[in-house]
Amino acid sequence: MHLNIHYLPQFVAEEDLAGSTVVMVDLLRASTTICTALANGAMAVRPFVEVDATAQAAAEYEREKIVLGGERGGEPIEGFDLGNSPLEYTADVVFGQTILFTTTNGTRALGHAHLASRVLVGAAVNRQAVVERLRDEGEINILCAGTGGVVTREDILAAGAIAEPLLSKGDWSPNEWAEAAVREWQELVTTARALGRSESEQFAEELKTTPGGRNLLGIGRDEDLPVCAQLDVLDLVPELNRENGLIV
To answer: What InterPro entries does this protein's entry cite (predicted)?
Structure first.
């Protein structure tokens, strides 16, 4: 039983993910937004790598039954309904809708896992639900999306938060990156206790200094950081159906 964390999709060959359970983590913000949209009643999220493919797919649906969402460089895409902030995906906007969704990093990472037997979406908000789903899996690969081909500490921390309870109670053999990510997360927990903060509060503080967090601060999306740092507030695990391309 192996539990591997990969800091970027390009650090692991697609073939090496074949047959395993992959958990895609793009904490800021695709993973959190997908979880939020489904929790608020979206029928499904259909991910795309390219903007043009997303817009073209809209022709397959009645326009009132879909929402076009996503970002490039953190900013909303011209002509789309929503950006990539989880705060935008409220029940009054997404309930009963299919979300056609493309982001700079997260949806591309999902595509990298196309040979996996199962592809799940993990974040802080559904951390415990993901842990429970993974307890009976044998080969787990947690795939961090990164930011523009650069390793991001926010994804490493989220991956470590998922891996830590699994490794503490299971028989998985971690790779060195999993061990390092768990140490990073344990250091955050220790700091939170020393400062009298909750783990979510400390996570939100530390996100301000991560690559993705600095990017969001730079475009005025400060309010997304504490939302993405919330732990265990959603009891669902989005899973990609490879036959129809929908995350449900």
So the answer is: ComB-like, ComB-like_sf
